[in-house]
Amino acid sequence: MRRGYKWVDRELARMDPDADWERMISLYVGHRVPEFALAMMVYPGTMRMMQPSFGSATLAHTAKLETRPQRRFEDGNTFLMAWMVNGLSSEAGLGAADRLNRIHLAIARRTPHLPGNFDDIDDFVYPLVLLATFADRLQTSLGLPGTGEHMKTAWHHWARTLFRLLERESGPLAGEAFPEDWDAMTEFALKFDSRPYEETESGHRVATAMMEFFAERWFPAPLRPFGRDLTRYLAGERVCRLHRIGWLSPRRERAVRVFLKSAFLVQRLLPDYRRPLPERLRQTRRTERTEGTRRSRLTR
To answer: How far is CA 103 from CA 24, 89, 90, 114, 169, in A?
Structure first.
């Protein structure tokens, strides 16, 4: 069935965000979000999430971001696609939440020297708030239109529902408080970001690894310095200084802003994707592995 050039907005406009929020998130992420935008959210977003010192210590302990960053990116995408595209009520969505709970508990048991690394409620609220509000915060910071009111409502339902599926080390989060609406989520994020945090060597090491991977994964060698600048900009000056990965000169910051504004404007002109994002991610993964095998054979 032909859906037209720009069909997602028409479908979303027909839906009730209080009743159809799960389908709205699935449509938006599945057919509007490019893979590059997902990467822009995941790695700089993780830098923000590990502002508390025990967050970076836990990531440094697992070492996956430093030693297997591509695998970490793919695993993270698997969770996000199950929750955003398959839906939180689906078998895949519920299974992903259960799997993450088991992973967290297993890590907590293996790291008694990191007490509370999976027990602070705010450290569960913040990542979900960041995922829900990332696009709006970025676009409005660039002077572009942000998320529409109906999608704000849908994103809040999504974040709150996922929160209630998760468990901290001391028990389920289902009965704990979550920001009551979109405005409360954005206020929570601003307050979380403004707290005083301590510099750590683990934070510096993991943030550096994430920045380097993002630049190498998405930019050819001559443009990798710009890729690192883009990562810094998306993480934010305060986060970059906390992790000691440097900040941008005014000229380089302007270049990144021009790039991002242009990318958003181009995206608005392009047709909505007909293939859902999980399918596009699988195709990219197959292509990269085929190319990697080919390069390996050539170097033997």
So the answer is: 29, 20, 20, 15, 11
Residue stretches of the chain with pLDDT short of 50: 1-2, 293, 296-300
Residue carrying the six token digits 């998760």: 166
CB 5 within 8 A of CB 195: no
44 strand-pairing partners: none
Among candidate residues 32, 110, 127, the one with its CA nearest the CA of residue 76: 127
User: Do residues 293 and 47 lie in contact, with contact meaning Cβ atoms separated by under 8 Å?
Assistant: no
pLDDT for position 72: 77
The C-alpha atoms of residue 250 and residue 262 are separated, in whole angstroms, by: 18
Q: Is residue 299 part of a domain?
A: no
Is residue 296 in a domain? no
Instruction: Give the whole-angstrom CA distance, residue 66 versus residue 33.
Output: 26
- pLDDT at residue 298, rounded to an integer: 46
* Kind and range of the H or E run holding 171: strand 171-172
Q: How many domains does one find in the chain?
A: 1
User: For 240-262, how does the pLDDT look when each residue is reduced to its tens digit (9 = 90+)?
Assistant: 999 999 999 999 999 999 999 99
Whether the Cβ atoms of residue 44 and residue 235 lie closer than 8 Å to each other: yes
In a 10 Å sphere around its CB, with 0-12 CB exposed, 13-18 middle and 19+ buried, how is residue 178 labelled?
buried
Q: What is this structure's pTM?
A: 0.91
Alpha-carbon distance of 177 to 34, in angstroms, equals 33
For residue 170, give its domain range.
18-288
Residue 55 counted as domain residue: yes
Token look-up 């993964």 returns 285
Which residue, chain included where needed, has tokens 């602070």?
120
Question: CA–CA separation, 290 vs 117, rounded Å?
Answer: 38
Output the pLDDT for position 119. 84
Structural domain contains residue 297:
no
| Average per-residue pLDDT for the chain | 90
